[in-house]
Amino acid sequence: MKTINLLNGLPLPPSSRRTTFFPVISATARVRRRDFPALGEVISLWFAMLSPLIGLVIGFLGAWFVAWLTS
Fold first, then answer.
1. Residues 38-69: pLDDT tens digits?
2. Alpha helices of the chain — where are they, by DSSP H?
């Protein structure tokens, strides 16, 4: 504990301080921009997600239609 307290309490001389190329003080907040995927990728993704659901709906409607015809 004594070592940690000594290190925290002793200021570094100006010549031994490390400087960075981009100081934190002058850093500005960057605005994060979303990169949207291409339209072809979006269409194919939605088709891949919705085609099984569309198939289920058409299948249930077809089964209902056949049951309605045969009754």
1. 888 999 999 999 999 999 999 999 999 999 99
2. 2-9, 39-70
- Residue 38 in tokens: 């291409």
- The phi, psi pair for 10, rounded to 5°, reads -90, 120
Chain centroid to Cα 24, Å, comes to 26
Q: What is the pLDDT of residue 36?
A: 81
What is the torsion angle, in degrees rounded to the nearest 10, for the CA atoms of residue 32, residue 35, residue 36 and residue 41?
Answer: -150
User: From CA 13, how far away is CA 34, in angstroms rounded?
Assistant: 44
Sign of CA dihedral 8, 13, 18, 19: positive
- State the number of CA atoms in the 13 A half-sphere of 66 facing the CB: 5
Overall size of the chain counted in residues: 71
On whether the pTM is more than 0.70, the answer is: no
